[in-house]
Amino acid sequence: MVPTYSAGARLDRLPISGFHRRILWLIGAGMFFDSFDIYLAGGILGALVKDGWSDLRLNAAFISATFIGMVIGSFSAGILGDRFGRRFTYQANLMIFGLASLAAVFAPDMWSLIVLRFFMGVGLGAEIVIGYATIGEFIPPAQRGRWAAYLSIITNTALFAATLVGYLVIPTFGWRAMFAIAGTGALAVWYARKSMPESPRWLESVGRTDDADRVLGRIEATYGAGLPTPRHEPVATHADPGLKVLFGRPVIRRTLLATVINVMINVSIYGFVAWVPTFLVKQGLSVGSSLGYTTFMSLGGPVGACLGALIAERLGRRNGLTVTSLVAALLGVAYTLAPSIEIATAVGFGLFTCIYLMVALGIAAYIPELFPTEYRLRGTGVASTAGRIAGIFIPQGVVWLYASGGIVPVLIMLVGALLLQAACVGLFGIETRNRSLEELRPGHDPALAPVER
Questions:
Q1: Topology of domain 244-428, per CATH?
Q2: Which residues form a coiled coil (predicted)?
Q3: Is the bond leading into 250 cis (omega within 30 degrees of zero)?
Q4: For residues 374 and 207, what is the distance between their CA atoms, to the nearest angstrom?
Q5: Does domain 10-199+210-221 match CATH 1.20.1250.20?
Q6: Buried b vs exposed e over 353-374: b needs ≥16 C-beta within 10 Å?
Q7: pTM listed for this prediction
Q8: What residue segments make up the domains of the chain, in order of their start?
Q9: How confident is the model at residue 299 (pLDDT cuts 50, 70, 90)?
């Protein structure tokens, strides 16, 4: 009787190699242009108003169209990615936002641009769900959290890149050139990704074991002889559990935890990070000064992602998220007590760092690990959808809170969200560090005998 090793066991035994680095760059390139397309909105909307193309009302419609599209994209990616595969879905979403971005170059009026932005949003919302979930299906357990953080680093560089490119391009070539750059980049990545393999874990989960074996054979052939023997793992089931599995025992606890993490991180970003320039102007600073201080704070984004790569496999995801949430809450309190703008900026840098460290540990690494392969994208998609919906309404809450008492009520909201996240992860989370994705299945019994035939 020859043991049949699962796709997960065969992938997990592979040493990190050029194959893994290629997967990282192919996924990372798509997510970079995804984030670039999201962040270019700030510079473009200002240029549209200046050119007389738009006003504040139409700009608000543009932003709303983006978020509505992202909500639909996040949810749809979860359904389609589990049903038709990771490869099909990430290629489809790149095509959607790439073509929509190029079409925006030729938009005849603002309403046409708003409609096209909705379609961009569909693709943009899908990419985050697929990218972070897919990278983890290829990387061995001892490195999985670190490589998810690497992907977060690549993604977070897009904020600085979009700001810099907008500064250089928009005054000379106009706002249309920004959409041309984003669309061309997305379609170039779409072409490069055509050679990227389907996830063997997903192929096995839907019963396509021969296809999974062929993909694994090609990957293993690049290593030559001398690979370690895979660990025995039960082969994944082939049944499609549907969306309802996320809300039944024992999975609902993980679904709620993933949702809380995604919503609380979105509260942090859209309830604080996105508002810092406005808060500083309201406190009496000039627009130029506020942007200067905010730029310094925003360096916490890549710093936080880099810290994620350093601690993901040391502290673990559960402990790392809990500790980072508590530190961020303390910094939120300190921000309200800062006696000068310089000290507030230093505290703000630390707060930005913690928030983007939570993105690396929580959204990039932890949430996709909570769900088995056959419904990983559905679970990730539902949590992401909840976060996107929160992102639509949080700014309205910030406006109301700020009008009622200035920045202090806003920071009370932020600190409350961070403490809630720390409590939920600390009390109800599981540790995923150095464990295979198959071991993390709800109800997994490590004593199960190997499948043989």
A1: Growth Hormone; Chain: A; (1.20.1250)
A2: none
A3: yes
A4: 11
A5: yes
A6: bbbbbbbbbbbbbbbbbbbbbb
A7: 0.88
A8: 10-199+210-221, 244-428
A9: confident
